[in-house]
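Example 3.2
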Amino acid sequence: MSSPSPAPSTPRPVAVVTGGTRGIGLAIARDLADTHHLVIGGRSSASVDAVVASLPSAEGLVADLADCAPGGSLEAALEQIVPRLPRVDVLVHSAGVLRSGTVAESAVDDWAVSMTVNVVAVAAVTRALLPALRHAHGLVITVNSGSGLTSTPSSGAYCASKFALRALSDALRQEEREHGVRVTSLHPGRVDTDMQHELVQFEGAEYDASAYLEVDSVVRAARLAIDAGPDASIDMVSVRPRGWRP
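Structure, written as C-alpha cells:
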C-alpha cells in the first residue's frame, strides 16, 4: 500500500481509479488530479507509487485483481483502504486483461482470468465501496469496450467478459438508483494504448496509431458522465474512431 499524499487543506471529492497506472485509467486520473483526491489502483507497488508521487493528492491501492478469493490480494488491499474512504464521489473501473484466441485454441485459464479480472473484481471493488458511493451519491464508470456490444472472432473470452461487464453495470444502475448512485457504461472503440499494441501484434497487422482513438478522446467521453448534473445519469457512452465502420 502506498503512503497517501498530505491531505489538502480543503477536503476534495474522492475518485478511485483501478488500472490507474497506464492507458485510459492513468489519463482519467490525471484529468481529475486538480480537483479530486485520487486512489490509484494497480498491480505493481513501483508503478502505483510513481503515479501517486506525480499527483497533488493521492494514495495507492496495490492488488492483483486476478486474486479475488477470500483472503486474497484484493480483499486484503480493500480492507486497508475502505475504512479511510467515508465517501467516494467517482469510481472508475479501468483495469482489464485481454486474452485473444479462438474458442478452439483458447485455454480454459484464458476464460477464467478474463472473467475474474474484467467482471468479478469489478463487482468485488464496487461492493466494498458501495457505502462510500451511496454517502456521496457517487458515480461508477465501467470502462467497457466496443467488444461489450459486438462480439468478434478470436476474442471470445474478452468479448464474453465485456458483455458480462455490461450486464453487471446495467444491474447495478437499476439497483442503486434509490441510493442516488449513478452508473455509466463507457464503450470506447479501438484506442491507441498498450493493449491495442498487444492486439495488433496478435493479429499480425501493422500498427497505425492514426486509425485509433486518442486516449484523451476517451477521457472527454468519461467527463461527459462526471460533469453531468446530480439530476442526470449518463447510462451509456459509445465512442468510436472517426473512420470506424461496423
